[in-house]
Specification:
The chain is an alpha+beta fold and 460 residues long. The protein folds into 3 domains: 3-165, Beta-Lactamase, CATH 3.30.450; 209-307, Helix Hairpins (Orthogonal Bundle), CATH 1.10.287; 309-459, 2-Layer Sandwich (Heat Shock Protein 90), CATH 3.30.565.10. It has helices at 3-55, 66-78, 96-99, 101-118, 155-205, 220-269, 277-304, 317-327, 329-335, 352-368, 415-421, 427-437, and strands spanning 81-86, 92-95, 125-135, 138-149, 312-316, 338-342, 347-351, 375-383, 386-393, 441-447, 451-459. Strands 6-8-9-11-10 form a 5-stranded mixed beta sheet, with helices on one face. A 4-stranded antiparallel beta sheet has the order 2-1-4-3. Strands 5-7 form a two-stranded antiparallel sheet. Helix 5 (155-205) packs parallel to helix 6, helix 7 packs parallel to helix 12 (427-437) and helix 8 packs across helix 10. It starts with a helix and ends with a strand.
Length: 460
């Protein structure tokens, strides 16, 4: 079952439940109120008849006009009530059931059948209620009214209840229909972007990373889903480009020394060249370069794997950096590069050998891409809860579009220029792997022609 159908059904069932609950509750409440109204109306009718009877009795409770009392009794009988009048001693002065007992019985039986036809098993019965007739603050007689109780619905009352129920059912049907339409629309609005995501992921699965999902919805989670799919497409597209570039770089880096070795060996085998020690040494150097390159590639896998193990110890980062700078003294001299090192004693808790590898890579890159007569500045400082290492040069710099990828495998910002410097684009990916293994951060800021600034932070 699709999400759209599930959402639509959930709206329908929820609306059906709420409308049914509202219908039942409202119907029960209104019927209870209507019953109270009927019983109050019955009491008002009773009091009105008592008032009429009181008007034809004198101060002693004597009936002044029998004909009027009889007409009152007939009127009460038409209203479903049996009228009786007695004195204070209980002596019967007037009784409608005595005058016309058959009509009274038929009336009560008809009322009973009528109520039982509406409510099968209705617990109704004949009831009597006594009222005192007061004259000058004295009781002079007792009026007794007999009727079918506790309440009785006539035809008008039944018609009112039927109309009320029809109104409730109609309203419930209208709201249920609106709930179906609203549920379908909402389900469509929610499922439509999800279907777009599904279609897009199928395109991604087929290798199409070009198009992006656009537009915004009113649902935060769906917007996040659209953004995540677009980010996934961006990442996969970037990885695909990096994979192609990686393959091209591997091919180039391996082809050049292999071609050199092959041409030299073929020339010596064919007797064109003498296998002198210089030519053999040249072949050996190319083989060593291939060996170093493969070792660096293996080093990347080891550095970026989850099994990278750190052997941490406390050491003075400034003293370690000074020793590394001293090892590069000849390189600084050969390119006439001024080195400025601002240092204080700074103890860090890290893997000393791997941090040395990071510093060596950063200084080596700075020397490669700094022109003769340039300057390199190195600073080590305390930064909140850790230590920050900064190296800045005034060399060739990096283009803005290359900065996000500078720490990727074999990525080289200027391919022709880096080949001339001998770089393979492996060092910075190793730097990133080591620093992140220490839960640190590495960053770069650079402008073409203005030099580059690399920083890494190691938490204490």
């Amino acid at each position: 079952m699709s999400l759209k159908i599930k959402l639509a059904l959930s709206y329908i069932f929820l609306s059906l439940f709420l409308v049914s609950a509202l219908l039942i509750t409202s119907n029960y409440y209104l019927e209870e109120q209507f019953r109270s109204y009927i019983m109050e109306s019955q009491e008002k009718k009773n009091l009105a008849i008592v008032e009429q009877v009181s008007g034809i009795l004198d101060q002693n409770g004597t009936i002044l006009n029998d004909e009027i009392l009889l007409s009152i009794g007939n009127a009460a009988l038409n209203e479903g009530m049996v009228l009786m009048v007695s004195d204070l001693s209980g002596l019967e002065l007037f009784c409608m059931s005595t005058i016309d007992s058959m009509m009274c019985d038929n009336m009560l039986e008809s009322m009973q059948n009528h109520m039982e036809s509406i409510y099968p098993g209705f617990a109704g019965e004949y009831e009597q209620k006594n009222y005192d007739v007061i004259k000058n603050n004295d009781r002079v007689a007792i009026v007794t009214l007999g009727y079918y109780g506790p309440y009785y619905y006539n035809d008008a009352d039944i018609h009112f209840l039927e109309v009320l129920n029809r109104v409730f059912i109609t309203v419930a049907a209208i709201f249920l229909l609106l709930a179906v339409v609203f549920g379908y629309v909402m389900a469509e609005k929610i499922s439509w972007p999800i279907r777009r995501v599904i279609d897009k992921t199928k395109e991604i699965e087929d290798g199409n990373y070009q198009d992006r999902l656009d537009g915004k919805t009113n649902t935060k989670e769906i917007d996040q889903l659209l953004h995540s799919v677009n980010s996934l497409a961006d990442t996969l597209q970037k990885q695909q480009m990096m994979k192609k570039r990686l393959a091209a770089d591997y091919a180039h880096e391996l082809r050049t020394p292999l071609t050199t070795i092959q041409s030299n060996l073929e020339a010596m085998i064919d007797g064109i060249w003498e296998p002198t020690s210089d030519r053999l040494e040249s072949c050996r150097e190319e083989v060593q370069r291939l060996t170093r390159m493969i070792a660096n590639i293996e080093n990347i896998d080891r550095m970026e794997s989850d099994n990278l193990r750190l052997t941490k110890e406390k050491f003075d980062l400034s003293e370690t950096t000074s020793q590394i700078i001293m090892n590069f003294h000849a390189d600084f001299e050969s390119k006439d590069i001024r080195i400025k090192f601002e240092k204080d004693e700074k103890l860090v808790h890290a893997d000393k050998d791997k941090i040395k590898q990071v510093i060596v890579n950063l200084i080596s890159n700075a020397i490669k891409y700094t022109h003769s007569g340039g300057e390199i500045l190195i600073q080590i400082s305390e930064d909140g809860s850790g230590t920050r290492f900064m190296i800045r040069d005034n060399g060739i710099g990096i283009e803005a579009e290359d900065i996000p990828n500078i720490f990727e495998h074999l990525y080289r910002a200027d391919r022709s220029r880096t080949r001339s410097t001998g770089g393979s684009g492996i060092g910075l990916s190793v730097v990133k792997a080591i620093i992140e293994a220490h839960n640190g951060e590495v960053s770069v800021e650079s402008r073409p022609g203005a030099g580059s600034t690399f920083e890494f932070f190691i938490p204490s």
